[in-house]
Amino acid sequence: MRIVYVCHLDPATSDYPLFLAQGWEALGHQVTLVPYDLLCTNDVVVSARQRMLCWDAPCRLRYFERRLTRICRDARAQILLLGNLFVSCAGMRRLRATCGCAVGFILGYNHLLQDHTAGMIRDADFVLLHDSYLDPVIRGTQYGRNPNVFHFMGAADPNEHRPLELTEADRQRYGGDVAFIGGYTGYRESVLASLAGFDLRLWGPDWEKRPGLARFARREPVYGLKKTKIYCAARIVVNLQEPEKQINSFNSRVPEILACGGFPLTSYQKDTELTPLVEGQSVVSFTTPEELRDKVAHYLDHPTERAAVIREGRRIVLEHLTWEKAAAKLARDLETVLGPGRRS
After folding, report:
1. I need a labelling partner for 326 at 20 to 30 A (CA). Which of 173, 249, 256, 339 fits?
2. pTM score, two decimals?
3. Between helices 89-99 and 57-75, what is the axis angle to 10°?
């Protein structure tokens, strides 16, 4: 297949689109990555126009649609995958008609009422979901729903997420009892406040503004090798899912941590049950701040149990939960939406 994938590619924002593209290319598909954030928000002309009163949202969408049309024609795209609401509903229909490709988008968060999400669901050839909670809400043929709904979960890239030999300086800088990677939100504060009695490291923006947690803040961007070092150095890495964004979804943080030989302690997510990971044996979860605090204390005091979970979890991740396998599954899904006229 020839796939054009529009996504955010700032490394501090997200890196899974790159892993998916690499997986598809390894299978022999042709992938053109279009980094919306780097092409548009860093584009001098676009930035200048955005500062003008006449440069409103419809103009931005139309500008990018024309740019994307040229890219799809040059790539002879069969699949156009939008990682966000980068074009309008009418733009999606025009791109399909003009370029002759199947057009779909990824609904990463549960923002069904945001902007033109409902229209995109209706007009797309397919929808990719992180969260199985939305599947029965979207799947169907009536009331603007979409029958082509495909689910993909978090995964790890063993080339990037792997155990590292750390220096003593690395261990001092990135270690500690408990690490959390992510910026401040009220929900995260309400949960992580229960860990104030531990050696806690909070990696992300705005924690220094919270009186109860400011002393734990490490305000610097975290991605790539630094993220891997944190996974390897911290005794426990906490993973939190924002309940307003996703309900059941299985976050990439869990397989990434395990692939690095780290110990993830994650908020309970129902989609974990769709993986081979087993609670207490290869992954450990919590449902309340009090349970999080108690499990942190328990596993810090029982390193042998912690090591057993890491060992079994890492084996499962490397066997079942890699982006290579996720890309293969999604490629099979996408091929089902290509009609005879689009297969050539």
Report:
1. 339
2. 0.92
3. 20
